Amino acid sequence: MAWRFALLIDPVASDIRRDDFSDTFTVIDPDGAALRLGDLSAQRGDGIFESLGVIDGHVQEVEPHLARLAHSAGLCELPTPNFDQWRAAIARVAADAPAGESVVKLILSRGVEHGPAPTAWITLADAPDSARARAEGVRVTTLDRGYALDVPARAPWLLLGAKTLSYAVNMAAIREAKRRGADDAVFVTSDGFVLEAPTASVVLRFGDRFVTPTPTAGILHGTTQRSLFAHLGQRGFETAYETVPVSDLGRADAAWLLSSVRLAAPIAAVDGEAKAVDRTLTDELNAYLLSPRD
Ligand code: PLP
């Protein structure tokens, strides 16, 4: 990933109101060393993050991402982020964004063990090229996530609805999918329900009805999926959150993986079974997702 710009942020309490937060930001060399060795993000993956798409300098869906950052902070018992401070940091890094697609990443770590405060930083990087995934689609393999649908409610300490920095399992799932000849994975519960992809939400289409797994099932509530559902609703389509059996992946007329940077990637095969890609509709969905969204 080509990093362009980074700021270290000195987090301030969520109730502090100021017009100017610039003295809480330190510009850092995006390719240089910036963290203490004992930072718990590096030692234990103990922190949370958000990745936001940037298109021609416009950062997409800032408020939904900040809301999810705060939700993750609550689940992880990290201090509530100061939204004004993060908005200012996002505006500062976006000012350096080139034309085309980039990624802004917000990171809030628990900080150094026994240290006084969390560590936070924000980066701007070039977005990977997603043209092929958007046009031709991705072949997915279903992978058991190893727990039943009711586990998130029974075991909240698993932090299943938080966007934590601990993505080692998610990356291992993508490697396993590639070993099986696919491009990406779709996690399913041990009792046979669709969850999400390691870095994306899953949306299925049945006629004029679009369905996604209920976010209480221990998955992230995708900002891209929510934005797309609002758009589809305005276009007269029905949208629904449901418990989705794995067999629906094959049964659906079409399906997509949705995320802030790759946007809508149609699912072209499930466990080796080809699936029709609706190129026209996918292009329309991506045109909407590439338009400035707040
Ligand atoms: N689910 C997981 C596990 C993710 O990592 C992501 C995005 O990174 C998503 C879903 C989609 O979320 P969003 O649309 O907000 O990018």
Structural class: alpha+beta
Largest sheet: 8 strands, mixed
- Percent helix among the residues? 25-40%
- Spell out which ligands are present: pyridoxal-5'-phosphate
Portion of residues in beta strands equals: 25-35%
Q: What Rg is obtained from the alpha carbons, in whole angstroms? A: 19 Å
Write the H/E string, N to C.
Answer: EEHEEHHEEHEHHEEEHEHEEEH
Q: What is the subunit arrangement here?
A: single chain
Q: What is the helix tally?
A: 9
pLDDT averaged over residues: 96
Morphology: globular
State the CATH class of the largest domain: Alpha Beta
Number of domains: 2
CATH architecture of the largest domain: Alpha-Beta Barrel
Total strand segments = 14
Low-confidence stretches: none
**Distance linking N and C termini:** 25 Å
CATH H-tier superfamily of the largest domain: D-amino Acid Aminotransferase, subunit A, domain 2
CATH topology name of the largest domain: D-amino Acid Aminotransferase, Chain A, domain 2
